[in-house]
Amino acid sequence: SAIYELSCEAYKHLGKTSNYYWIDPDGSGTLGPLKVYCNMTEDKVWTTVYHDLQMQTSVGGNSPEKLSVLHLNYSATMDQISAITSSAEYCEQFISYSCKMSRLLNTPEGNPYTWWVGKANEKHYYWGGSGPGIQKCACGIERNCTDPKYYCNCDADYKQWRKDSGMLSYKEHLPVSQVVVGDLDRPGSEAKVSVGPVRCQGDRNYWNAASFVTSSSYLHFSTFQGETSADISFYFKTSASDGVFLENLGNTDFIKLELKSATEVSFSFDVGNGPVEIVVRSPNPLNDDQWHRVNAERNVKQASLQVDQLPLEVRKAPTEGHTRLELYSQLYVGAAGGQRGFLGCIRSLRMNGVTLDLEERAKVTPGVKPGCSGHCTSYGMYCANGGKCVEKYNGYSCDCSRTAYDGPFCIKDVGAFFEEGMWLRYNFHSPGTSVKDLVSRTLLSSADPEITAPDLGLNKEELSFSFSTTKSPCVLLYVSSYTPDFMAVLVNPNGNLQIRYNLGGTKEPYNIDIDHRNMANGQPHTVNVTRNGRDIVLQLDHYPPTSYSLPATSDIQFNSPKALFLGKVIEIGKIDQDIYKYNTPGFTGCLSRVQFNQIAPLKAALRPTNTSSHVHIQGELVESNCGASPLTIPPMSAATDPWHLDSGKVASADFPYNGQAIGDGVNRNSAIIGGVIAVVIFTILCTLVFLIRYMFRHKGTYHTNEAKGAESAESADAAIMNNDPNFTETIDESKKEWLI
Questions:
Q1: Per the omega criterion (within 30 degrees of 0), is the bond before 601 cis?
Q2: Which residue ranges does the record assign to the Fibrinogen C-terminal domain (predicted)?
Q3: Contact of 368 with 218, CB cutoff 8 Å
Q4: pLDDT tens digit string along 286-321?
Q5: Does the predicted TM-score (pTM) go above 0.70?
Q6: Residue 134 belongs to domain with CATH number
Q7: Per the domain annotation, does 175 fall within a domain?
Q8: Is residue 220 part of a domain?
Q9: Where are the beta strands (DSSP E) in 87-186?
Q10: 68 and 173 in one domain?
Q11: Cβ distance 20 to 35 under 8 Å?
Q12: CATH number reported for the structural domain that contains residue 594 in this entry
């Protein structure tokens, strides 16, 4: 059975994040697995396959040859790439031709000098940004070529560098396997060619599904050709306790998969030696309306059946006897021959590497509906941090709008770098709404309908955020009100955290001091504060939560909340003396994933939403995740550390090699020798750097700003990206190294 998933989409639904993965687009078919980069940051997954042609490859320079041929070698075979492009919803590949006295397509009328070769060795005479049959470049379609007489910038034959570039997006022609450049035989002719990786989005096969509404409904397809080998895989979801998934009959031969009971899946067949049945029994019911995966294989040696991650059931074939499965009838998916058919959903049905189009067939079949609903029951758990799972016709997505997070699974912190003197204010009500509307709408969960106008206030708050700073004292967060009530999170002059509540009824504000830890140490720290009436629970980093109680005389209502401040408090009226002192020069550092009840002020400032009008910023807010990195935890002993690598468990979390971590067989001595060599090289490099800096120190200092730099280009290739807005994805050099 397959150890690799069929596509990037499948890895995404295992809750994986963007990385390189091995995928096997046709199951156990002939193609074999290939390594691709899966980008999960958008709603639809991007799959990227790279090749070895350098960007800006120079051709020509007065070469005597008439034609210069550039070959692209991919990290996958053409058939493997075709399997990806054919199941994708959209594919693209960037292509660019920079020229100096070197014509490209010889527009408007001539024979092209340059062409590219795509799938099935076909030549194509259109260029990026254009389409099949149109002998034009992007500028010819947009009508903005350097010389309007031509349809490509390069065809004007100028002595200065010009460029024609754009996306090839007719996926039936991709990938580009060669570029043949022709116009190079005159003195002064020069050209440079760039071709990006193939990028495909979406996976039509993964969500191709049908819902069987009655137990007599079925879909039929042409006879299954599985004489010597059969490989069948699909997902099912049902609340019924039995039913036939699929069946194909011959004279006496047959092949059949069915749900026999709520806990049993059966794979049965007869190749002429009498019927054989393999049954997988599940400890938990399979009719729980969750997706379950079935994988059945049969060849001349053996047959096997696997359900989800349960143990594989294998049956060896007899040494003598028939081996060919001879079928004549159509393939029935669902009820066949008067049997009780399957009720529920079947998805991503693949027979010998080919996905059957259940969706198209269901559109014209009574009793069967295309698509499936109810993906959230199986995948909703991947929407983290309070993100809501939203059903879609083909899949699901996570709605992160009520959270302080971002990304497809709501796990990406949204944070920012604050320069000294910068601050942010979030007004709880926008101009023109009454306080009552506002507080009841945004701050109070609908569970508290009994709070009414004159004494508008909060009996409970939930606050969580993370921060890092090296400067104290400072104000991290402050919630003001239309009364003297306030709440503040401060770092005092010693670098210790203080939570301060003033709800009335006490002479002095109530303080919670965390004295024994320096929080201004430049490390990210997380703070969670929950108040319910008089009870306050504070959790800091990974330490156990601690409970506190407001004094008996204290009021327990936070009256008329007005605004939330980050970094500094700029509020009219009387302000607490300490806070006034801590306000200058202000907070410098990082704040991340700030959430107060239902409100995420930083996210509202950085992501345009309907609440952005509530935000006022002084200074320039630079998005950064510098406050979000993992908590700093003192090293644990191997015995208590759940991540201690003693079982290869972690390897399977990060690498798609099913637990076989890379470098299984590397012995220890070579690792130690390697370590020693690395240290020696490192020392030499450090010495060199020191010497070079010493020699060149009069040439001016090199100033970096980590927070701002974090957002800028990561690799040398990014230079191309900056010059060329079309080139959307560059390979990070470090990842390339890892690939090899």
A1: no
A2: 1-51
A3: yes
A4: 988 888 999 999 888 889 999 988 999 998 888 787
A5: no
A6: 2.60.120.1000
A7: yes
A8: yes
A9: 90-100, 115-117, 123-124, 162-168, 178-181
A10: yes
A11: yes
A12: 2.60.120.200
